[in-house]
Design goal:
The protein is α+β, with helices and mostly antiparallel strands and 410 residues long. It has 2 domains: 278 residues, Zn peptidases (Aminopeptidase), CATH 3.40.630.10; 121 residues, Alpha-Beta Plaits (2-Layer Sandwich). It is built from 10 helices and 18 strands. The strands form 4 sheets. An 8-stranded mixed beta sheet has the order 1-2-6-3-7-17-8-16, sandwiched between helices. Strands 9, 11, 13, 14 and 15 form a 5-stranded antiparallel beta sheet that branches. The longest helix is centred in the first third of the chain and has 19 residues. The radius of gyration is 23 Å and the shape is elongated.
Length: 410
């Protein structure tokens, strides 16, 4: 019997913190420890696996469980390896603790609980006599900051095998075909997210000229144009709340996530950097949304001889997930959940996921997993272990042949 609690604890105690664009380093950063764990687990189980290098120290890990029925469809199960940082946490981030049916630790909810459910389902299905789907499990990197792992994975079925980079060839050969559907693990409370927002994120830089603060007239303080830009962005953010207020995903949103500038109180700063997050409704153009912000900032700051505003290219750009792409994938999961005694509703979400990347690459996608988004990224992150067990049972039921598709305990 595969233990979902032990699997989740194994994942949580292996740090996989995303640096989130910061120049930080240390044993808790990047996904390598989780990647090694997965490789060892798949090797022990006798499942074919491959790595796909995405960036230094960051590999997608793929594994395949073949169907037992000929000409069966391929379904992609995706769970990202990375977590957000641990700054401000009130619990031991990487020492999993079980209390009152909950497991606490960074990533327990987002999204190692969902990954654990998929791993348990894979190992249970490996022992099943009949499987109607071919499963490609993908543990992707850098979901929290850039979706680069999902984008690298999607390229495997968008580029002919002969044209694949040699480093991607093993993963492409393992994948073999474009998936017919994708299930993306995120904390949805065991419901189905069939549509969600996209996002475009970039850095805005206010430039000035440094000097001693005793002679501020000899410099150009970059904080002043940055402040005017902030007020313009705030005004636009308030306006956006009134656009499409009745959309299932909520209105488009705009926010400033970080601001950095200055090195000392007695120095006039020559540089201020803001990180901007614009959430997109499905169908919205990332380019147009970003340009609207740029135009508002330019109008507010104006042209000055000693200062300038520049905008870097986006470090993240993803469209929203349109509802019409989920199709039969959502129906399959909903039916499997019903067989397990759970009513899975079809919902819309305000956040973004890897599902939008796969949908753009022409793979119908739906988001599903244990846990609540309200616990994701929190200072005392936790997940209800019973939901992990139920998620594993539902995933298992989607792959069994219909006459055998009842729910099993895990």
């Amino acid at each position: 019997m595969i233990d979902h609690m032990a699997t989740l604890a194994d994942l949580v105690r292996r740090p996989s913190v995303n640096p989130m664009g910061r120049t930080v380093s240390g044993p808790e950063y990047l996904e390598g420890r989780v990647s090694e764990y997965l490789v060892q687990r798949f090797s022990a189980a006798g499942l074919p696996w491959a790595r796909q290098n995405v960036a230094p120290g960051r590999d997608n890990v793929l594994a395949v469980l073949e169907a037992t029925e000929p000409n069966s469809p391929t379904i992609l199960w995706d769970a990202h390896q990375d977590t957000v940082p641990v700054d401000g946490m009130t619990i031991a981030a990487f020492t999993p603790v079980i209390r009152d049916g909950r497991l606490f630790g960074r990533g327990a909810c987002d999204v190692k609980g969902g990954m654990a459910a998929m791993l348990v389902a894979l190992e249970r299905l490996r022992r099943e006599p009949s499987r109607r789907l071919r499963i490609v499990f993908a543990a992707t990197v850098n979901e929290e900051f850039g979706f680069s792992g999902a984008k690298a994975l999607a390229r495997l079925w968008q580029v002919p095998l002969a044209s694949c980079a040699s480093a991607d060839r093993p993963a492409a050969e393992l994948l073999a075909v474009k998936p017919q559907a994708a299930v993306v693990a995120e904390p949805t409370g065991l419901h189905l997210v069939a549509t969600h927002k996209g996002a475009v994120r970039w850095r805005m830089i206010a430039h000035g000229r440094a000097c001693h603060s005793a002679f501020p007239e000899q410099g150009a303080n970059a904080i002043y144009p940055a402040a005017r830009a902030v007020l313009a962005i705030e005004t636009l953010a308030l306006e956006l709340r009134g656009r499409s207020p009745d959309h299932p995903c909520g209105p488009p949103t705009l926010s400033i996530g970080t601001i950095q500038g200055g090195t000392g109180v007695n120095l006039v700063p020559d540089r201020v950097v803001l990180e901007i997050d614009r959430r997109l409704l499905p169908g919205e153009s990332a380019e147009a949304a970003r340009q609207e912000v740029i135009d508002r900032v330019a109008a507010a700051v104006g042209e000055q001889a000693d200062t300038a505003i520049t905008h870097e290219s986006p470090f993240l750009s993803s469209s929203g997930l349109p509802e019409e792409t989920s199709g039969q994938t959502a129906t399959m999961l909903r039916d499997a959940a019903a067989g397990c005694g759970h009513q899975a509703d079809v919902l819309a979400a305000r956040y973004g996921t890897n599902a939008s990347i796969y949908a753009v690459a022409d793979v119908p996608s739906v988001v599903f997993g244990p846990g609540s988004i309200a616990q994701a990224h929190t200072v005392d992150e936790w997940i209800d272990l019973s939901e992990v067990a139920t998620a594993a049972s539902i995933l298992t039921a989607t792959v069994r042949l219909p006459e055998e598709a009842g729910c099993s305990s895990v």
